[in-house]
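User: Structure tokens for this complex, please. No commentary.
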Amino acid sequence: MKVFLTRQVPEEGLVLLRKEVDLEIWPGRTPPPRDVLLEYAKQVDGMFTMLTDRVDAEMIAEAKNLKVISNYAVGFDNVAVDAATKHGVVVTNTPGVLTETTADLAFSLLMATARRIVEGDYLVRRGDWVSWEPDLLLGQDIYGAKLGILGLGGIGQAMARRAAGFSMEISYWNRTRRPDLEESLGLRYAEIDEIMQESDYISLHLPLNDGTKNMVSKERIAMMKKSAILINTARGGLVDNDALYLALKERRIAGAGLDVFPKEPISSDNPFVQLGNVVLAPHIGSASVQTRTRMVRMVVDDLLAVLRGEKPERLVNPEVWEVRKSIRS
Ligand code: DGY
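Assistant:
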């Protein structure tokens, strides 16, 4: 069996994989170009992919041997899942394992943006700290403030638990209301527009799909309070980023903490880089040593399970199991 891994990941997690398959690893710091990915897709039984690899429907149709695409992320908007299902290709992801780590980053961005920590760091380094001043870098309170969470999956819930520690008043919107969590997490359900209007902080924890694309639209950004801060550690495509940029530039909202962008990476001439009221991160939601190591193990377990003919634990397209029986076996 052949497996293509599209980026170097913590090596210790690969021992098992190397024992059972012929493993090829893309050596680059950036993702393999589409033609390279396509060539491998045509040859291999399994692909160990990153969220930066676009595995589209055409590629899957040409990948006659391919049995499994194991994505090293909880999100899987980079994989044409419907096409995979149609062709009997199993898609797996890494849910759960990165929940707390990503919520840590979301809350860190919230705090860094609210308390202007990055601006303060620059000020000190530039040698501009001339004195304690009554109005130096005034930020927003976090304790007791209103937090709106859009998307109450695992990461949204983990965000709520952190916010509860700061006595925040938490509202949430989720596609399916979760009354079972409202009491235990101290949450109130609200419609999206109400959350946009009322919240001091809005944190996004939704997957990107046709239903959520540009959900934080120009109109919704215009609803936000002047003192409000938007945190996005989910996917850049959830937000109208042009409208967000203008709102931040014109100080119609106070700030944003952004780990994700519609097109990544962003370069140093991206307009967001010019704004002092934005804290930027390079898509590092799950980037802790412990979590990334666990993610490798998960991907390897699921990939090997499929190649051995067993059902993997984390199936993005469970319906594929039947399709697979009729097409591939
Ligand atoms: C994911 O796993 O989808 C995250 O975006 C990684 O940080």
